[in-house]
Specification:
alpha/beta, Rossmann fold, 8-stranded mixed sheet, 39% helix
Length: 324
């Protein structure tokens, strides 16, 4: 019988990305033990603990110090759900102490940092040398199995077109950091490592805050004409969906049970929670000692760097036009 893995969650509140409570719940459902959480203050920790206990039946101690939490709890896995500006320090700590790590996307980002790709490669090597798993929380590829159930004829065809729709609460200067990792993870799942060519951002339908990012994704076996539509939706559940070679599905979230489905041709197809699927897959890989996917991690960071360098000036001008 497998030994129960102990998980320490950094950033368990619903601030900003807000995935911490759901990641903790998913690990518990997958059979792991949540041994503690790390927050920035006593108030934030108390708030997170209350939510975890009342809504997800997770009860554990809280810490303001990652070092103290690691020393007292000795976790097998670190789940980093804090804002991305704070990821790198926690990642380096996990790598140096030989702890598996599941990290909110992007893996890390510091606008002022130089040599982002080289720093990422060094970080990945540290996890590899310790035989530890490292992944990001980019769950959309786990929906592809349901997509191909709806469109089985597409499974063996090369992907030449991909359109992805997401709905952020609002457009922001860190739109790429928050949203593009989902797009890049889907492209990697569909075609493997690729290069981004000719990225552009345009306005959709004359709405200044409705943006479309387009580029060509050049992979070894195919070239994918890519469109990424970002239309703000202030309140959840927010619309989302994608199309592969013109075959479209719309992701639906059903409240209050918070269940998922794909909609196609007025028919709903049940969709397992992709975050639960990602966490379950990650935990299984830990048990079977699966090596980390360095190509996928590096491809994601390189793609994000390319998009940021190409588009950040345009994004600033669009935000000024919106008044943000």
């Amino acid at each position: 019988m497998n030994e129960i893995k102990r998980v320490l969650v950094v950033g368990a509140r619903r601030k900003r990305q807000g995935t911490g409570p759901f990641v903790a719940r998913a690990f518990k459902q997958a059979g792991a033990e949540i041994c503690g959480i790390v927050g920035t203050s006593e108030n934030s920790i108390d708030e997170a603990l209350d939510i975890l206990s009342s809504e997800h039946d997770v009860n554990c101690p809280g810490y303001e110090s990652l070092g103290k939490a690691l020393e007292e709890q000795n976790p097998d896995i670190l789940a980093i759900c804090s804002p991305y500006e704070f990821h790198l320090e926690a990642l380096n700590t996990a790598a140096s102490q030989g702890i598996h790590c599941l990290c909110e996307k992007p893996l890390w980002w510091d606008e002022a940092a130089d040599r982002k790709f080289e720093v990422t490669a060094k970080l990945i090597k540290a996890f590899q040398e310790n035989g530890r798993l490292l992944e990001t929380i980019t769950q959309w590829p786990h929906t592809l199995e349901t997509f191909y159930t709806i469109y089985p004829e597409e499974k063996e065809k090369p992907v030449t077109q991909f359109e992805f729709d997401l709905s952020p609460a609002k457009q922001s200067a860190d739109m790429l950091q928050n949203s593009a990792p989902h797009l890049l993870s889907m492209l990697y799942a569909l075609a493997g490592v690729g290069k981004i060519k000719r990225p552009e951002i345009s306005i959709l339908g004359g709405q200044i805050d409705h943006w479309q990012l387009t580029f060509l994704y050049e992979a070894a076996q195919t070239e994918i004409k890519t469109s990424f539509n970002l239309i703000p939706a202030p309140k959840p559940p927010r619309p989302a969906g994608y199309a592969i070679n013109g075959k479209r599905v719309e992701r639906k979230i059903h409240l209050p049970e918070y269940s998922f489905s794909f909609e196609f041709d007025d028919t709903l197809y049940p969709l397992a929670d992709p975050l639960d699927m990602l966490v379950g897959s990650f935990l299984k890989k830990v048990y079977i000692k699966r090596s980390l996917d360095s190509e996928g991690l590096l491809s994601g960071m390189k793609g994000l760097i390319t998009l940021d360098e190409s588009l950040k000036t345009r994004i600033r001008s669009l935000l000024e036009a919106i008044g943000n």
